[in-house]
Write a structure and sequence with these properties.
The protein contains 22 helices and 24 strands. The protein has about 650 residues and is an alpha+beta fold. Among the domains are: about 200 residues, FAD/NAD(P)-binding domain; about 200 residues, Glutaredoxin; about 55 residues, Arc Repressor Mutant, subunit A (Orthogonal Bundle).
Length: about 650
């Protein structure tokens, strides 16, 4: 079967490469006489990167272009940070680089240039040839329209496209500046005016170049002359309230290749195909640029359709299935783009906490079903409580064995208000804590570095406790990861976790919005922490940790202080005699997937091994570069590195 692809941009080239790999005969017809490289640079999501890497397999000379982007910073024109958050993996790539990369893979003799599509020749309602404006024709059995947002193929299938009105415009530029690229690193930085519909974004796309853009409401101001001088004056004026970094970019820019994009979209089509003609990429669907979805969607479309064509002899059935698989996600992205546009045009309609990151997330998400758990545990703890630290192995095993039956609700117990008149179990001053931590470490074999209390003692445990409540305001699951991270900082890394720079880092590490956490630390989180202290007082909590076990608002049992896993298991079975444990995969790969960091004691308990056996396995994993090791004077923390290593087994 011969497949004719109309459009030699990213979508068309990707489609050709993927079909060639499956043994299809393909030809690409491109309207331009030379390689189409219009457009500066764009962001590609991890899914697109994965597909691109699949296309490059077998070609040792092919190299993935662009710069890895893994963090997002949203700032006000004053340079105050509004959001700072870890991103799903993205790659910022120059359009020229990716097109050249794809052309390097696809056979040059299968690309026919200077062919601008005119119409199809039909026989029995099926297209048999594509006719071009220069009079040439290309016969085929199956035709793929990959001719972009102004697709003539789409117009042939479904009539004139009803585009949305352009309400936001973008100025796009590409600047060569190695110094700024080094300064930006792997960060996507966006400055958003808090009162006007104006923003400025900056993303490195190579070691020496970065793409920048301005989004603006043309009803505020607009430009009607495209000369470099006029463009430079317009950009400087519209961004006059923005910080020095923005003006540093504008001062270095020549504006020779800068252009304005009239942003618009169209409603989801009723289908992506008609008979033996199908659309992919922007020809099939168009989202507003706020989502950065376009290039990723082109690659996902191509990969999805190529896979289905390989699985089905009936290409029309493959096309129908392609629409079923892609249309729901595309509809969501169209809606997301419109919602982000609405927010942009109404900058004062949302508070800072509710602002969304202007990017798509992973395209296929499992639906999370909220189920009522059989056992509820109310857990009073504190970030610097050493006993809470040493029962981490037990709580992690509980999470694995009773994941679907047990729910743990975290409350802060307020261990150390301050050192003024403090006297708890004989501890009166920081040096007493050092002695206590050393004893606990020796007795229970969980690594604890006491030196923090001798070198930089914490004056209180309240600030990190309030930070945990701030984390809960964003995401209760990530809040637990945040608590774990700040515990690693204080118990192993000797970091004083009342300091905001460490709280900011920990929040970012676990995927929280670090800037919002610091804001909430000074606001709403404080009242939530006070609520926890009031509840702890009402329940007469005298020791940490304290765990209240209950079943369906009925009987309640309590444990406090250090507990073995057998004691915790016994309490659960006492409350619910018929409860069933889940069998979990004890392989190192799975355990490190579930818990990105583990101590030797945790690994041993989760594997049902003794410490010697666990240490031997961990050393073997370290030799094979499957884990990394953080060594403290009291013991090691092992960190997941499986995803960065292709070693099989384990």
């Amino acid at each position: 079967m011969k497949t004719v692809i109309l459009g030699g941009g990213i979508a068309g080239l990707a489609m050709g490469i993927l079909l060639n790999k499956k043994g299809f005969e393909t030809v690409i017809c491109e309207r331009d006489a030379t390689t189409p490289i219009k457009g500066n640079a764009f962001l590609m999501h991890a899914e697109g990167i994965s597909i691109l890497q699949t296309m490059m397999e077998g070609d040792e000379t092919a190299k993935l272009p662009g710069v890895f982007i893994d963090r997002f910073s949203l700032r006000k024109p004053s340079d105050e940070e509004v959001k700072f958050q870890k991103l799903d993996p993205w790659q910022c790539i120059k359009r020229k680089d990716i097109v050249e990369c794809l052309e390097h893979i696809y056979p040059a003799d299968q690309i026919k240039r200077d062919r601008e599509f005119s119409h199809f020749l039909y026989q029995d309602k099926k297209a048999i040839a594509a006719v071009f404006k220069n009079g040439t024709m290309e016969y085929g059995d199956f035709f793929i329209g990959a001719d972009g947002c102004h697709s003539k193929v789409r117009e042939q299938l479904f009539g004139e496209t009803a585009f949305s009105k352009t309400e936001v415009k973008e100025v796009l530029g590409l600047l060569k500046s190695p110094a700024l690229c080094r300064q930006m690193g792997s960060r996507f930085t966006k400055f958003q005016h808090h009162r006007k519909s104006i923003s400025f974004g900056l993303i490195p796309c190579s070691a020496t170049e970065l793409v920048w853009y301005i989004q603006y409401d043309p009803q505020i101001t607009d430009i009607h002359e495209s000369s470099p001088k006029a463009m430079g004056m317009f950009c400087s004026e519209i961004l006059k309230d923005f910080p020095a970094l923005v003006h540093e970019v504008l001062e270095q820019e020549t504006f020779e290749d800068t252009y304005i994009w009239q942003t618009r979209d169209f409603d989801l089509l009723p289908a992506f195909h008609k008979n033996n003609v199908v659309l992919i990429g922007d020809a099939a669907h168009l989202s507003l640029p706020f989502t950065s979805a376009g290039t990723t969607n082109a690659l996902v479309d191509a990969h999805t359709l190529a896979t289905l064509m390989g699985d089905h002899d009936d290409v029309e059935l493959a096309c129908s299935r392609y629409y079923q698989l892609r249309s729901n996600q595309i509809a969501k992205q169209i809606d997301l783009g419109r919602e982000l546009k609405k927010d942009f045009l109404n900058p004062e309609s949302k508070n800072e906490d509710d602002l969304m990151i202007p990017l798509i997330s992973k395209q296929q998400r499992a639906i999370r079903r909220i189920t009522k758990k059989e056992i509820n545990i109310l857990y009073f703890t504190d970030p610097i409580c050493s006993t809470c630290w040493i029962i981490q192995p037990q709580l992690r095993k509980l999470q694995l064995e009773y994941e679907h039956q047990v729910n743990i609700e975290y409350k802060m117990g307020g261990l150390l208000p301050s050192w003024d008149n403090f006297n708890r179990n004989g501890i009166k001053k920081p040096s007493d804590v050092a002695i206590h931590w050393e004893q606990v470490c020796s007795q229970y074999e969980m690594p604890i570095n006491k030196d923090i209390w001798l070198e930089d003692p914490l004056p209180s445990s309240y600030p990190p406790s309030i930070a945990f409540k701030a984390a809960q305001l964003q995401d209760t699951g990530k809040a637990v990861l945040f608590l774990r991270r700040i515990r690693e900082m204080v118990f192993l890394e000797k970091k004083n976790i009342i300091k905001k720079e460490y709280l900011h880092t920990a929040a970012y590490d676990v995927g929280l919005d670090a800037a919002r956490l610091l804001r909430d630390l000074e606001g709403r989180a404080q009242s939530l922490f006070r609520d926890d202290l009031v509840l702890a007082d009402q329940l007469e909590i005298k020791e940490l940790p304290t765990l209240f076990f209950s079943k369906n608002e009925g009987d309640e049992l309590m444990l406090n202080g250090y507990q073995s896993y057998e004691n915790i298991d016994r309490i659960i079975r006492q409350l619910s005699p018929g409860i069933k444990k889940g069998n979990y995969d004890k392989s190192p790969r799975n355990l490190f997937k579930r818990f990105q960091t583990m101590t030797t004691s945790e690994f041993a308990l989760l594997r049902n091994e003794n410490e010697f056996e666990a240490q031997f396995t961990l050393n073997e994993l370290l030799i094979n570069n499957l884990v990394k090791e953080y060594e403290s004077p009291a013991g090691s923390l092992w960190m997941n590195n499986f995803e960065n290593n292709t070693t099989t087994g384990y």
